[in-house]
Amino acid sequence: MSRTALHLATVAGLMMIAAPALAQQPPAAAQPAAQPAPAPRAPAGAQERAAYDRMDPLSRSVFWAAQHEINPADAEAGVKLTQALLEMGANDQAVDAAQRMLVLQPDNVDALMLAGRAHIARGQAFYGIAALEKARGLAPDDWRPLSLLGVAYQQVRRTDDARAAWNEGLRLSPDNPSILTNAAMALAASGEAASAETLLRRAVARPEATLKTRLNLAMVLGLQGKTAEAEQMLRRDLPPEAADRNLQWLNARLQEARAAPVADTARTWASLQ
Questions:
Q1: How many CB atoms lie within 10 A of CB 38?
Q2: Half-sphere exposure of 63 toward its Cβ, with a 13 Å CA cutoff?
Q3: CB atoms within 10 A of CB 223
Q4: 105-140: per-residue pLDDT in tens?
Q5: What is the pTM of this model?
């Protein structure tokens, strides 16, 4: 075989050996396939929302926070998230949730009232008054902003304004238990137990009166020394252990009031706040 023929045969053999190895290598320009973008989350339907409304405040706060994240303009989600946070005592977070709603919906009356409630709950009612006054202006026929305004005014010691707000609320909703209870507890905290009792008796006579209103009446009665009637009410509404604890608290406060000079009785009533 000539030298040229031998060289060509060698080159051909090398190419045959290298070909399988080259075939096993992926093309240099190959790229991984693109992954499809995740589908956007959809808001929960009416049935699921109704189911969560029956759950405890923590479960509701988690659910409504997720719904609000999906759609920050979802007014129902924002309102119910704030309500759940208030029930949990997470008052600072409730303020933040209400304020986020108001950025997008500055005239949302429910959000304005919740902002006011949250400030009241954390003892900073002054910062909620503007929101509540705006709610009153947007809904002049609604008693709810007036009821809350009275509480806020009372907290910042604007007593006359508080009573005016409650009186206007009662004009719109006569004998409303919520307004009567707020006004009564303001009187009780000022040491005007007899006047507070009168308002609370009007409140509990209404069919829509709540357990809280009845317990407030029992407390006011007990602090006036009307312990038999107070005990009867407490044992009707509370389990035995809870009734016993409340009666012990009332007896201790009553003893304090009896031992203190008349000028110092406001200390005992201040604990009602």
A1: 6
A2: 20
A3: 26
A4: 999 999 999 999 999 999 999 999 999 999 999 999
A5: 0.75
